[in-house]
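Bit of a strange request maybe. I'm writing a small parser for structure token strings and I need a real example to test against, not something I typed by hand. Could someone generate the tokens for this chain?
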Amino acid sequence: MAIIGNIIKGVIQIKDTLTPDSNPVENQKEVLKSLLETAKDTAFGKHYNFDAILENQNPSTRFADSIPYFDYNKINDEWWHRLHQNEEDITWPGNPDYFALSSGTTGKSSKRIPVTEAMIESIRNTGIAQVFALSNFDLPADFFEKEIMMLGSSTDLIEKEDHFEGEISGISASNIPFWFRGYYKPGEDISKIDDWDTRVQKIAEHAKNWDIGALSGIPSWLELMLKKVIEYHNLDNIHDIWPNLQVYTTGGVAFQPYEKSFNALMGKPITVIDTYLASEGFIAFQARPETTAMQLVTDNGIYFEFVPFKAEYILEDGGLAADAPSITLAEVEPDTDYVLIMSTVAGAWRYIIGDTIMFTDVERAEIKITGRTKFFLNTVGSQLSVNKMNDAMMHLEDKFGMKIPEFTICAKEFEDGFYHCWYLGTEQTTEDTTKIAEAIDAFLKDANKNYAVARSKALKGLKVKLTSTDTFNNWSAKNKKKGGQVKMERVMNEEKFKTWEDFVNQN
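Reply from user aminoacidic:
Good idea to test on real output. This should exercise your parser:
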């Protein structure tokens, strides 16, 4: 009998029963007030007169009117660069102990995003809230006695003067609560290995010693790790070595394109729970099994605003026009794409994280990630977002019996006009690309009226090429780094796409 598991499950259920329902809109009002109060004496708070915002009858409106949008480059050039000169009280009291390194999907030099003690506490508290939400998933008691494999970036952080640097998954793992360390795998020693291939090799070697009940990590890299374990031990599937694996906590990218290839590594179905952890904070997690949507964390150090995702508000580099209107959580509508804006306990203010989201349940503040502002393909008015691209890939998988976990696309000009050029990552590289292009085209015409209009005018058609998923993984390894928060860019400009095509041809 799972005695400890029953105790833990009982505590979680009692906590869930005793916790009163919260009001997301009221939570956000309190969070904004707390952020402004805490940061009013910082250089940023004085410059934008947080005292006056707090005294206003409608602080959220005054806040939006007083402070411009900031992307990383703008806030770093104007404010955060001073943190690296050992100045304090710039956008948040004190000086952060950590900086999260994030190259995102651009492949450029890493951003250095402040991670304060308040943000670490916020991430930890949200993680605990997610554990308590497991009471909704009806998991057996023995699940709570199993170990959790967290595949992130290295926890061997870079020490620089008075702070440490690393990816947010490494920073978070290096700050896990002491009571959780007995459950955490691959453990501190293996997690500190910087080289991803070496770390995965060590995981494969030790896999038989662990009783893994849950997995956590970005789908693409987690799949490679699972394949390595299966190959190393000559298994049919991962359940041959981890028979009690029951839960996968995914995040970083949409899981749907990876679903078929991921399930092919399983011996039986498992529960997939989506999360939304970024370098800027723990934003949302799936709180109930009836939906794949995630609940915004509205009461834990992050204030959200939302800009309607319309072409006229989006700049070519994925940023926002200065006059793009924002709304609060109280004003959002379901089934509408919004650009997500954040202000946080790490000193990010009206920060454009670069993601677009859609509310599936306004009352519960439940969302789905629909894409990236930089991956919004609007050449000749096609207005194609990543969620439509993902839907097209799922359609192909069903129609042709394929697995397509990776893809990238470019709007490229040829002599006779513009074409959408698709590269699909799949092991079924002998499929008829002409039929695949026709299937994508037909699906998108039905799914997106703007795309259909563009196809009747300047968008001449589609060109499709197939390559192995290893090509995508090798591209990421060459341009950035394997594992961690690294994600494949879904849309490329023509200059980047030429480099990509050269890389594919060479490999």
